[in-house]
Amino acid sequence: MAILYNMLVDMMLGIIPLWIGDLLDIFSRSYAKNYRLIVGFVEGDKEVIQEVNRKAVLTAAGILVLCVIIYWVARLAVYLTSELWGWISGLF
């Protein structure tokens, strides 16, 4: 999850329009951060393990929030579609 977190941050920086996202993406270096996390986790570095756990919790919370947002958007789409269908049916 920590590696996924770094990759998502890197992608979010990279999609900023024009040259700004490219410039930020160059300095982000998520691959170096991921390598440090993997090596530190395998070697038992306590600071790296805490960082991995923190990023894993943040990523899991973000995924949960995203799932809730998707659920409510889907419910809104179903509601609006049924309302629109009812309105169109009432015309004929």
Can you give keywords for this protein?
92 residues; 91% helix; mainly alpha; 0% strand; 4 helices
Overall pLDDT level: 85
- The rough form would be described as elongated
Number of helices: 4
Query: H/E order of the elements?
Result: HHHH
Class by alpha and beta content: mainly alpha
Radius of gyration: 21 Å
Describe the structure.
With 92 residues, this protein is mainly alpha-helical. It has 4 helices and no strands. The model has no long low-confidence stretch (mean pLDDT 85).
Q: Can you lay out the helices and strands and say which pair or pack?
A:
Elements: H1 2-14, H2 18-28, H3 30-43, H4 46-91
Helix pairs in contact: 1-2, 1-3, 1-4, 3-4
Quick structural summary:
The chain is an all-alpha fold and 92 residues long.
